[in-house]
Each structure stands twice: as C-alpha cells, then as structure tokens.
C-alpha cells in the first residue's frame, strides 16, 4: 500500500481527524503528534512505544520524511544557511544564533511572485508553494542540527516567499509551532512577515502570532516603484487592515520593516511622511540596512543617514530599532535568499561542517 499520508502535514486537530478516519482513538493522534514534534527523538523508530498493530498501519500508509539537505554554509558571525532540496527546487533556511535565543528564518514558497526590486528572492521568480510538511520540516531539522541542549526559540517567516500567498499551509504550520504538544513556541516569538496581502491578514489574525509588515516606503508613489504589490493594495488599504489587526488585541503591536536604500527612501522628508502614515498605530519600525546582491540597482544608505532617519522617527514618537546585519557574507541576510546554485558558487564564504555532526 502506498504511503500517501505525510504526517508532517497535519496539525493536531487534523491529525485527530485522520486517526478517527482510520478507526483509531483521538489520544493516539496526540501521542503520534507529540513524538513527531515535541519529543523529537533521534531514534529511527520514534513510534516504538505504540501498539504493534498501529505501528504496522502507520508504516504501511504514512511517512514523515526529512527534507534532503543539499548543503550548509556558516558565516563568519555564526549564522548558518541551510539549502534544502524540495522535489528538484531549492529553498533556503537560516539559523541565527544569539546569546539568549536562536532564531530560525523559514521559507514558505519556492521563489516569490511579488518581485520587490530590492530583494534577490523576488528576482528569481516564483515556482510553487511549500506544503505544511516542507515548512515544518525546516524547523524540525534545524532543531536536530543544533548542539545538544540547544533548540530554536524564535521563528520568523521572512525567508523565501510571501507567507500570506500560501496561507493554508502557513496557518497549519503555525498551529504546529505554537501547540504545547508540538514545538511549544510562545506565539509572541513566532512572526509572520507580509508585504501586504490584505485579504489574508484577517485570517492570520485568528492566531496569536506576531505580525510584521514589509513597508519600505511611506507614500504610494514610492512604494509603487519598489514594491509592485502596492498597486493592488495601496497604503490606505494596507493601513486600514493594520488598524483592524490590533483593534481587539490589547497587547498586540505591528512591526514595520523598512529597508534603507540610499537616495531612494532614506530622506528626512520620508521619515516625516512615515510618522504621519503610522499615526495611531501600536507599532515599531525596524530599519534594515540594505544588503547588496549581484546586479542590484540600489546601494545601502550610509550609517549617518540611517541614524538621522531613526532619530526623526523617535522624536516623532515612533519606536524605532536598527537591525544588525547577519550572514551577509554567505548571502543569508535579509533580501539575499535565492535558493539557487548561483548563491552557492559566488565564493562568498566557504562550506563548513553542519552545526551538529
């Protein structure tokens, strides 16, 4: 009998439904779910404590395959970029270690259809959506590659793709990540970033995860130029959706991501326009130094311009941080993920062993 059911595609509710269809008790579904995600043993037979009949049935009809790891690259600052094979395509996942946390940047699509002009992923075009299993496998395998005693503490959907254009699979993966029988990640430590797919934002708000909006411009004229999605969902529509997102969530706020492009969006006038745009929203702005990639028409803003922009926002009452660039020597920084052979053959850094043998 063909193994037609990948168990990594099921959140716990869906797993219970599947087990019921197979004539099994709901608590068995929770056992299997927990063994797949929460316990995460290294044993080749993770269901060794289940009844023999159930183990036989699962072996005949289900699977939970790992994504093939094509290569890994470790940057000088410790950031690790994992290149996974997904049916002939390639996706990239980035592990960002820090002293008090370890963040995983996951991909939700192969490529991206939005074609933001400052993003290498957008330049390669769109191939397909990832399944829930392919999304959750990035977290599952990253945890297994970390040194003993370490695990992923934060997840950001800021890798390849626009998460809200693959919403069903992303929502299912999010449920697995924050489930106490799954990876038990606090919802505030799981962030979904969108370029502004407005119709999907309401469904995302049904889960208590954090929202980041890739803004990058304070006016429609400028955003139209660098982010084509703005022509479909202009700023007044996007901002209205942002206000709705936090309306009945007393502790929620939105992070607005703003890549700093020299001479494009980094002027004092742009900072003042951004203050007006964000008025009345519980939010913070994350200024992102632009990370250069081959054939880009843009240059990063000088640090003096970034500091000046930040200071204007802060004086205007907008909480503002400047993101530290990590992993750019292996094209693992924000906007540099491509998942292609090109990114592996530019001589940017060297291949080193995995984080865990």
Automatic annotation (TrEMBL):
Pfam families: Radical_SAM, RlmN_N. It comes from the Bacteria. PROSITE patterns: RADICAL_SAM (PS51918). The active site is at residues 92, 334. Its main location: cytoplasm. It is an enzyme of class 2 (transferase). GO terms for biological process: methylation. [4Fe-4S] cluster binds at residues 112, 116, 119. Keywords: 4Fe-4S, Cytoplasm, Disulfide bond, Iron, Iron-sulfur, Metal-binding, Methyltransferase, rRNA processing, S-adenosyl-L-methionine, Transferase, tRNA processing. Residues 98-329 form the Radical SAM core domain. The keyword Membrane does not apply. The keyword Cell cycle does not apply. Its cofactor is [4Fe-4S] cluster. Binds 1 [4Fe-4S] cluster. The cluster is coordinated with 3 cysteines and an exchangeable S-adenosyl-L-methionine. NCBIfam families: rRNA_mod_RlmN. HAMAP family: RNA_methyltr_RlmN (MF_01849). Specifically methylates position 2 of adenine 2503 in 23S rRNA and position 2 of adenine 37 in tRNAs. m2A2503 modification seems to play a crucial role in the proofreading step occurring at the peptidyl transferase center and thus would serve to optimize ribosomal fidelity. Belongs to the radical SAM superfamily. RlmN family. Reaction proceeds by a ping-pong mechanism involving intermediate methylation of a conserved cysteine residue. This is Dual-specificity RNA methyltransferase RlmN. It comes from Candidatus Doriopsillibacter californiensis.
């Amino acid at each position: 009998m063909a193994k037609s059911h990948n168990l990594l595609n099921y959140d716990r509710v869906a797993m219970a439904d599947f087990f019921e269809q197979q004539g099994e008790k709901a608590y068995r579904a929770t056992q299997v779910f927990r063994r797949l995600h929460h316990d995460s043993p290294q044993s080749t037979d993770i269901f060794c404590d289940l009844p023999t009949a159930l183990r036989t049935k699962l072996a005949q009809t289900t699977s939970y395959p790992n994504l093939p790891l094509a290569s890994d690259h470790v940057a000088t600052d410790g950031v690790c970029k994992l290149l996974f094979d997904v049916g002939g395509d390639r996706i990239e996942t980035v592990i960002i270690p820090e002293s008090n946390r370890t963040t995983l940047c996951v991909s939700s699509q192969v490529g991206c259809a939005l074609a933001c002009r400052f993003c290498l992923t957008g330049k390669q075009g769109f191939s397909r959506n990832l399944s829930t299993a392919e999304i959750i496998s990035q977290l599952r395998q990253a945890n297994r590659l970390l040194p003993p005693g370490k695990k992923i503490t934060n997840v950001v959907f800021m890798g390849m793709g626009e998460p809200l254009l693959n919403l069903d699979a992303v929502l299912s993966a999010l449920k697995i990540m924050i489930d106490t029988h799954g990876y038990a990640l606090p919802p505030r430590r799981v962030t979904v970033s969108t370029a502004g797919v407005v119709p999907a934002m309401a469904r995302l708000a049904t889960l208590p995860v954090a929202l980041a909006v890739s803004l990058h411009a304070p006016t429609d004229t400028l955003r139209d130029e660098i982010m084509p999605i703005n022509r479909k969902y202009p700023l007044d529509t996007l901002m209205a959706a942002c206000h709705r997102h936090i309306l009945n969530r007393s502790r929620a706020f939105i992070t607005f991501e703003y890549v700093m492009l020299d001479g494009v969006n980094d002027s004092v006038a742009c900072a003042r326009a951004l203050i007006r745009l964000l008025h009345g929203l519980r939010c913070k702005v994350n200024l992102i130094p632009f990370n250069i990639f081959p054939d880009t028409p843009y240059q990063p803003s000088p640090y003096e311009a970034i500091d000046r922009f930040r200071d204007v926002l802060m004086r205007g009452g907008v909480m503002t941080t400047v993101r530290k660039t990590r992993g750019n020597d292996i094209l693992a920084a924000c906007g540099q993920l491509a998942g292609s052979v090109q990114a592996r053959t530019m001589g940017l850094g060297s291949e080193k062993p995995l984080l865990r043998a």
